[in-house]
Design goal:
This protein has 8 helices and 9 strands. The chain is an alpha/beta fold. About 35% of the residues are buried. It catalyses: 2 (2R)-3-phosphoglycerate + 2 H(+) = D-ribulose 1,5-bisphosphate + CO2 + H2O; D-ribulose 1,5-bisphosphate + O2 = 2-phosphoglycolate + (2R)-3-phosphoglycerate + 2 H(+).
């Protein structure tokens, strides 16, 4: 949802309704939408789900919204996730900055409660875009797949999170392949058998718009979630 900061809960819910009624399948909170004074999390959940339900009724289609449950303690994370589930949401989202123990904990909760878990890569650039130290984002893709998340922002080739097409393809293969083979152009230096470990659906998000869909499908294939934020409006 853009603009992402400053809307009241009621106005935020109106944007959710209008976007979904206009043809989108899902909308989502952005990484820095949490529980600020202008819109507390409970207010956002209530008005957001009202927008989802009204849009579903108006279109006859399945709709949804990713509610950000990121919080300062796991108790707060679980409280928000439980509230979202009680309202009828089928998906929640978290930010990478929560930390790996917290991510695995909420992933375990999501499996037990039949909820989809979306991960926003907020914070990855502090160590994944360093040229002299840090790590490649492909490593984070591996970790998050092993941690049990269902979606992760994995680059776009075009748009704000653009990157080398082969490198981005390596991210996608890491998330989707059941058997990874050595592919040096894609940055895959080791073969890996993922056995029965669940796949993680890559998400193309960041400065993209509907006019780039032909490029996105060409580079990324169709086993991907396409998210258009400001580009939708």
């Amino acid at each position: 949802v853009k603009p992402k900061l400053g809307l009241s809960g009621k106005n935020y819910g109106r944007v959710v309704y209008e976007g979904l009624k206009g043809g989108l399948d899902f909308l989502k909170d952005d990484e820095n939408i949490n529980s600020q004074p202008f819109m507390r999390w409970r207010e956002r959940f209530l008005f957001g789900m009202e927008g989802v339900n009204r849009a579903s009724a108006a279109t006859g289609e399945v709709k949804g919204h990713y509610f950000n449950v990121t919080a300062g303690t796991m108790e707060d994370v679980y409280e928000r996730a439980e509230f979202g589930k009680a309202l009828g949401s089928v998906i929640i989202m978290i930010d990478l900055v929560m930390g790996y123990t917290a991510i695995q904990s909420i992933a375990k909760w999501s499996r037990a409660n039949s909820m989809i878990l979306h991960l926003h890569r907020a914070g990855n650039s502090t160590y994944a875009r360093q040229k002299t130290h840090g790590m490649n984002f492909r490593v984070i893709c591996k970790w998050m797949r092993m941690a049990g998340v269902d979606h992760i922002h994995a680059g776009t080739v075009v748009g704000k999170l653009e990157g080398d097409p082969l490198m981005v393809k390596g991210f996608y293969n890491t998330l989707l392949s059941t058997q990874s083979e050595i592919n040096l152009p894609q940055g895959l230096f080791f073969a890996q058998d993922w056995a029965a470990l669940n796949k993680c659906l890559p998400v193309a998000s960041g400065g993209i718009h509907c006019g780039q869909m032909h490029q996105l499908i060409h580079y990324l294939g169709d086993d991907v979630v396409l998210q258009f934020g400001g580009g939708t409006i």
